[in-house]
Amino acid sequence: MDPPVWLMALAAFSIGCGMRMLDPLLPMLAREFGVGLGAVAPLIGGFALAYGIGQLVMGPLGDRFGKMRIVAISMGCFAATQLAASQAGDLGMLLTVRVLAGLACAAVMPLFMAHIGDSVPYDQRQAMIGKLLTGMVASQLLAAPLSGIIAETAGWRTAFLGLGLMAAGMTAFFIVRLGPGLWQAPAGGGRTMGLSGFLRILERKAGRRLLLAAGLDGFLLFGGAFPFLASLLIQRFGLGAAEAGLVVASFALGSFAYTQKAGWLAARLGERRMVLWGGAGLALALSVFALAPAWWMVAVAQCSVGLLFFMLHGVLQARATEALPEARGTAVAAFAMALFLGQSLGSVVFGSVIVAAGYTVAFLLAGAGVLAMAVWIRAGLMRPA
C-alpha cells in the first residue's frame, strides 16, 4: 500500500486548517466569552499539548498496525471533533473539544513522514517531504483568511462546521482511494518496540539533541511567535480578522517556494547552512514584527518567513526520519511530541509575556531565541552521536 504524495498532501491540508484556523479568531472568541486574550490562548496550547501527548500512542500504533490505517482512523476522529466544536456552548467545552481534536489528528503528519522515510532514500527525502508539505502550506495560506472571513460574516461556529465537513469528505476520499489494502496487516507482521522506542531515542545523544531542538522550535515559533501575529495586527494596527488572516497567510508564499525547491536547497546549501541562514532570517523577521511602525512592513516580512522557517525546520524533519530507522513511526512521533509540547508551553508563556510587557518584548525575545537555537543546532545537532 503506497498512497501517492498528492493524496497525503490533501489529508495534510485538512489537518493544517485545524491547526491554524484560530489565529485570527482569538480576539473574537475572547469578546464572545467575556475573557482576556490570555484566557483563550489555551485553545491553541491545549490542542498542541494533546497533539504532542498523542504521539506516545500514535507512533507505536502506526508501526504495529500499519501507518495508513491509523492515519485514516485519526482523520475520521478529527472530522468529528470539528463538528462538535461548532456546537460548543462555552469556553470550557470548546477547550475540551480542541484537546480532543489535537489527540485525534496526532497520527497524520508524523506517520506520513515516517512512510516517506520507509520508502524514499535520505538524499531525496527533503524533496519528497517538501511535496507532502504542499498541503500543509496550502492550509497556512487559506485557513486563517477563510476562517476570518467566515467568522466575520457567519460566526466562528460556521468556521468549525465547514472544516468538519471538509475533513469528513477528505477522510472518505482517502479511504476509498486506498481501497481494501488499507485494512491489511503491515509487512513484517507489524513488529514494534512500543514505548521502549522512545527510550531508545533518548538513550542516543543525537536523539536527545534532536528532541530538544524540536521542543525549542515549537516553544519559540509555533507557540511563541506565530499564533500571536494576527492579534498584533488587530490590536496594534486596527486590522479586521479577515485582513489579519490574509497577512498571516502570506507565510505560505515563502513556504510554497520551499516545497518546490527543497531538494535544490538541500543539495546547494547543505543542512548546516540551511539551518543557520533560516534561523538568522527568522530572527530578523521577528524583529520587524516587534518594531515595525506600519502593518505593511509586517506583511512584507511575513512573506519570507515560510521559506526561512522550513529551511530550518525541514532539516530537523529529515533528521527525525533517521532517528530510529527500525521504528520510524515512533521516531517521527517523538519528534512531533517534542515540537508540540514546546508549542503548548510557548503559547502560555508568550501569551503571558504579551499581557505583562507587550508584543514588542515578546517578539524580540522570540527572535533572539531563534538565532541562538539555530547557532546551537548547527554546532551541536549536526555532529555525530
UniProtKB/TrEMBL annotation:
Coiled coil: none annotated. Residues 4-385 form the Major facilitator superfamily (MFS) profile domain. Signal peptide: none annotated. It is found in: Cell membrane. The chain crosses the membrane at residues 5-22, 34-58, 70-89, 95-116, 128-150, 156-176, 210-234, 240-258, 274-292, 298-318, 330-350, 356-377. Pfam families: MFS_1. It is a multi-pass membrane protein. Keywords: Cell membrane, Membrane, Transmembrane, Transmembrane helix. The keyword Lipid metabolism does not apply. The keyword Transport does not apply. SUPFAM superfamilies: MFS general substrate transporter. Gene3D superfamilies: MFS general substrate transporter like domains. CDD domains: MFS_NepI_like. PANTHER family: CHLORAMPHENICOL EFFLUX PUMP RV0191, PURINE EFFLUX PUMP PBUE. This is MFS transporter. The lineage of its organism: Bacteria, Pseudomonadati, Pseudomonadota, Alphaproteobacteria, Acetobacterales.
